[in-house]
Design a protein that fits this description.
Keywords: Coiled coil, Nucleus, Transcription, Transcription regulation
CATH class of one domain: Mainly Beta
Pfam families: SGF29_Tudor
Protein name: SAGA-associated factor 29
Main location: nucleus
Number of helices: 4
Distance between the termini: 74 Å
Oligomer: single chain
Shape: globular
Subcellular location: Nucleus
Order of helices and strands: HHHHEEEEEEEEEE
Radius of gyration: 26 Å
CATH topology of one domain: SH3 type barrels
Number of strands: 10
Length: 281
């Protein structure tokens, strides 16, 4: 009997009052077929108390978790500030030797890590996902900050235009133009672009279980980062994420296939943004 009491205390009740509360807890756990209305006033009162306690415990735990998430966000922000400061010091220090270009494999690993560590939006009951959560666009007056990753439409050496993954260097409020660095060149190629040529990347992952409206839907046209590259291409959503940790499955436009689309490929939420051009190329 001693072992049984310890089991109940571990899973359901505090250390005190174990024997006193065991009977009504058995009623709650094993007599689920009995409706609350058919229970005696005593059990209804006890059940109400249990629900109230459980609700308070859940709210306290939720508050602690949110506080922890806020602290993690603060730490990530500080690390990002240090990274930007180190980068700017390297760019503008004439005495230092030129930096080596980052190896391709290292860059791809960093991009994958950035996608995996993108925080999941966890809103309060009834709270809508904010801008830049999943497919939710930024507000019309939004200005990306220094160090933010964006999709940038640039001209290539042969005169064509291409969407690339870039990092914001600065924004000029007088000209309404960004300066961005091509992420693939480690800051060696800089572009000055108007706001319409910049699409901010998501800052939170959308939870498919609680906020499915914040995800792109099946057959929706998007720009997605092609795997193992730093370029965005037009694609159709094949399958949205089913779970918070899942990626999108997309079909890239590809004329080498009979139907004009590639087989399904996985792309993280971090690297899928809305496509403003509806006409297929």
């Amino acid at each position: 009997m001693q072992t049984e009491n310890k089991s109940w205390s571990f899973f359901f009740v505090p250390q005190s009052n174990i024997l006193e509360d065991e009977r009504q807890r058995r009623f709650v756990l094993t007599d689920a077929s009995v409706s609350v209305s058919s229970a005696s006033p005593y059990y209804r009162t006890k059940l109400r108390g249990l629900y109230t306690t459980a609700k308070a415990d859940a709210e306290a735990e939720c508050s602690i978790l949110r506080h922890a998430l806020d602290k993690i966000a603060e730490i990530k922000s500080l690390l990002e500030e240090r990274r930007i400061a180190a980068k700017m010091a390297g760019v503008y220090s004439d005495g230092d030797p030129p930096r080596k270009t980052m190896r391709r494999g290292v860059l791809m690993t960093l991009l994958q890590q950035s996608a995996m560590t993108l925080p999941l939006w966890i809103g309060k009951p009834g709270e809508s996902p904010p801008p830049l959560c999943g497919a939710t666009p930024a507000s019309s007056d939004y200005v990306a900050k220094q160090g933010d990753k964006v999709a940038a439409r640039v001209k290539t050496t042969d005169g064509d235009e291409q969407w690339i993954l870039a990092e914001v260097v600065s924004y000029n409020h007088g000209t309404n133009k960004y300066e961005v660095d091509d992420i693939d060149e480690e800051g060696k190629e800089r572009h000055t672009l108007s706001r319409r040529r910049i699409i901010p990347l998501p800052q939170w992952k959308a939870n498919s279980e609680t906020d499915p409206e914040a995800l792109f839907s099946k057959d929706q046209l998007v720009l997605a980062l092609y795997p193992q590259t730093t370029c965005f291409y037009r694609a159709l959503i094949h399958t949205p994420p089913h779970r918070p940790q899942d990626d999108y499955s997309v079909l890239f436009e590809d004329t080498s296939y009979a139907d004009g689309y590639s087989p399904p490929l996985n792309v993280a939420q971090r690297y899928v943004v809305a496509c403003k051009e509806n006409k297929k190329k």
